[in-house]
Amino acid sequence: MARKFLQMGFTRARRYMNYKGGKKYLPDGEGTFPKGSGDPLKAESASIYYAFWKKAEKEPVYAKKKALWKERYG
Question: What's the total number of domains in the chain?
Fold first, then answer.
């Protein structure tokens, strides 16, 4: 669950970095806001989430369980 939270934090921070207010589409549904109109400070937040996400994936217990899951389910 923690890994999923870290992934969500990363993707949301990237969304807010790319689009002001985190909204990609215009209110009328016609088109999108310009990419890069968001907050550049969110890029730093995204990098922090990403670093902790990768650190969590390297945990031995998690890595073992992930390998077993991949072996079993593909």
Answer: 1
